[in-house]
Amino acid sequence: MVKFYESSFNYEYPFPAVTLAYFLRYPNPYAKHVLSTDVIDRHFDANSQRLYTTRLHLKRSKLPPAVLKLLPKGIIGSSSDTGQSYILEKSVVDVKEGWMTTETKNLEWTGVLSVIEKQSYRRPFQDNELGRLGGGSLEIGNLGTTEVTTSTTFVSRFGQGGLRAARRKTETDSTAQGMTAPDENPPTKGFLSSWSTSSLQRTIEAIGMRRTREALLKSKDGMNVVLGRLRSGGLVEVLEGMRRDREAMYGSDGPWKRT
Question: Model pTM?
Answer without folding.
Answer: 0.74
